[in-house]
Design goal:
Elements: H1 3-15, H2 22-29, H3 52-61, E1 64-67, E2 72-75, H4 78-86, E3 91-92, H5 105-113, H6 129-140, H7 143-165, E4 171-173, H8 174-179, H9 182-190, H10 198-213, H11 221-247, H12 255-264, H13 271-284, H14 287-301, H15 304-312, H16 317-327, E5 334-338, E6 342-344, E7 347-349, E8 354-357, H17 359-362, H18 398-415, E9 420-421, E10 442-444
Parallel strand pairs: 2-8
Antiparallel strand pairs: 1-2, 3-5, 4-10, 5-8, 6-7, 9-10
Helix pairs in contact: 1-2, 5-11, 7-9, 7-18, 10-11, 11-12, 11-13, 14-16, 14-18, 16-18
The structure holds protoporphyrin IX containing FE.
Protoporphyrin IX containing FE (HEM) binds near residues 134, 292, 389, 395 and 396.
Length: about 450
């Protein structure tokens, strides 16, 4: 983040009523506090390449730190992160989908005139709306649906891996060649959307991640604003289409039809709420799973002996997935808002304050995980990670995400056991507040 961008974010935070300490801000931008120390313990909110050293510093020295650059209280210890997630009456999720960087005037105009009125499907809804909608949505996320999807996911996975292995140079990018498409095809199929739309949904999803959790200047926002208008119009069209199909007696076996049918059977859910759920699922349903798959391959291959172990004994795959989620989660930070004057870990938090929960740090907390920086696929308590959140908003798609990762790992082990990272691969990560996404996973293999 440039000093100008940091200052601008701070101005917005101040305008939103968050106390901004401009002295500290200037000091932070020039690399340290007034006494020469690093005010933020090395924490850079949008830097995802290697945040773990800074996380450890935060946990050790200032586990609840006000970061005036973004206007959030940054919480880094496992016990505190979990406690905040668990206390929805004090800490509301209503800010979970709010743009970190306020929308510029032109982007706002494009979205308003384009009829963009999407709201969070579930994650930023609060009880009683959240309770009502989650109960209805949950009915559509059945194990029967997952089971029915498994052969298709496996077939798609095999095809993608075989396509990659056909490279005469024996090089590929596991993220682009395999991880990118699989979860997107799955969620589109689940919602009854044409899988040919994958590139379009990926484009829209990139825009959603950048516009909500990114650090964009006003001009950079414009193409994304257009994308979000298109994306929302399509979600509304899908709901209208489901109504028409049901009226024609051809509902089809998919989640949108289920929700519309539930509405027609008396469930309390509006078309706008169904379209908002589509808007959420068509993003949440693949973005983070693409990252999980990419991270699973990246982390396992960079711990070669553990890759060899799952190749020899694929029964170890489910444990490896939980350890990847702990060690290198797809979402490392998530937001809450204090509804009353309260405290976290003994630090006073004022009513209305934004709270940034660092799950990526909580997952490396030595108070919970022994030798937390070691990657160990046989770790017994890896499932204590907070990568899917905790409490009433606990990720609705966690089983689907793990199912897909398991299938991809099983098929990769079978088809490409000699897979390894390309020599000297220095993998970068996109700048973002919450989503820790590698830009590529360059791989090679034996003939
Ligand atoms: C590795 C993959 C995934 C990760 C890391 C992930 C992570 C998360 C996190 C951190 C939350 C917020 C939890 C909270 O506020 O306590 C969440 C909520 C949610 N996730 Fe996921 N997710 C993943 C995959 C999926 C998939 C595949 C779907 C859908 C098919 C999905 C649908 C949802 C929904 C609907 C919510 C909101 C739940 C609520 O507010 O009640 N997620 N997820």
């Amino acid at each position: 983040m440039t000093p100008t961008q940091a200052e601008s974010i701070a101005d917005q935070a101040r305008a939103a009523g968050c106390p901004v300490d401009h002295e500290a801000l200037r000091a932070a931008m020039t690399g340290g506090g007034a006494d020469g120390s690093d005010r933020h313990h090395g924490y850079e909110p949008f830097q995802m390449k290697d945040p773990f050293v800074a996380y450890a510093e935060l946990r050790a020295h200032e586990p609840v730190m006000y970061d005036e650059r973004i206007g959030y209280w940054v919480v880094s210890r496992h016990a505190d992160v979990k406690a905040v997630f668990d206390d929805w009456e004090t800490f509301s999720s209503e800010n979970a989908q709010a743009p970190v960087r306020e929308r510029g005037a032109e982007a706002s105009r494009i979205m308003k005139e384009g009829g963009f009125t999407a709201y969070s499907g579930l994650s930023a809804r609060i009880p009683p709306d959240h309770t009502r909608l989650r109960a209805i949505a949950q009915r559509a996320f059945t194990p029967r649906r997952y089971k029915a999807l498994e052969p298709t996911i496996r077939e798609n996975t095999r095809r993608a891996i075989e396509r990659m292995l056909a490279s005469p140079e024996r090089t590929g990018d596991f993220l682009a060649d395999v991880a990118f498409d699989i979860p997107t095809i799955t969620i589109l199929t689940l919602l009854g959307v044409d899988p040919e739309m994958v590139p379009t949904y990926k484009r829209w999803s990139d825009s959603r991640a950048a516009m909500t959790w990114g650090d964009l200047g006003d001009d950079e926002q414009l193409p994304h604003a257009h994308n979000l208008v298109e994306y929302w119009a399509e979600c509304q069209r899908l709901v209208a289409e489901a109504h028409a199909r049901i009226a024609a007696g051809d509902a089809g076996d998919n989640l949108i039809s289920d929700l519309v049918a539930a509405q027609q059977d008396g469930a309390e859910i509006t078309d706008h709420e169904i379209a908002s759920l589509c808007y959420s699922l068509l993003f949440a349903g693949h973005e983070t799973t693409t990252t999980l798959i990419a991270n699973s391959i990246r982390v396992l291959l960079s711990h070669r002996e553990q890759w060899e172990r799952i190749v020899a004994d694929p029964v170890l795959v489910p444990g490896a997935i939980d350890e990847v989620l702990r060690y290198s989660g797809s979402i490392v930070a998530w937001r809450r808002k204090a509804l009353v004057d309260t405290e976290i870990g003994g630090v006073a938090i004022p009513q209305g304050a934004g709270v940034l929960l660092l799950m990526g740090s909580a997952n490396r907390d030595a108070d919970v995980f022994a030798d937390p920086d070691a990657f160990d696929i046989t770790r017994a308590d890896a499932r204590g990670h907070l990568s899917f959140g905790f409490g009433i908003h606990y990720c609705l798609g966690n089983m689907l995400a793990k199912l897909q990762d398991r299938i991809v790992l099983e098929e990769t082990i079978a088809l490409a056991p000699t897979l390894r990272l390309q020599d000297g691969a220095d993998i970068d990560f996109r700048e973002n507040l919450s989503f820790r996404v590698p830009t590529s996973v360059p791989v090679t293999w034996e003939a």
